[in-house]
Amino acid sequence: MKRMIELRLARAEGAIVRTLGLIERRGFTVTAITTRSDAGSETLVLRLEVASEGRPFDVLLRQVLRLIDVRAALLVESSRSDARAAC
Known about the structure:
The chain is an alpha+beta fold.
């Protein structure tokens, strides 16, 4: 199953590498990445397409939120254009 996840990260050295490493260590595969900057802030927005064989995405979001550079994590609903906050 594939899902879209949107992450807001602090602009810090190694933030993207730490985040992607955690996702892959937890058994998920990143199949697509889109990045953009929030205008006027020190935030980087990552939109990831993540694949999994039966692993729960809500658990992944809770683990990602524990990283020091992650400011927010959203699970983007695939059937609708709205997003649901992880916490």
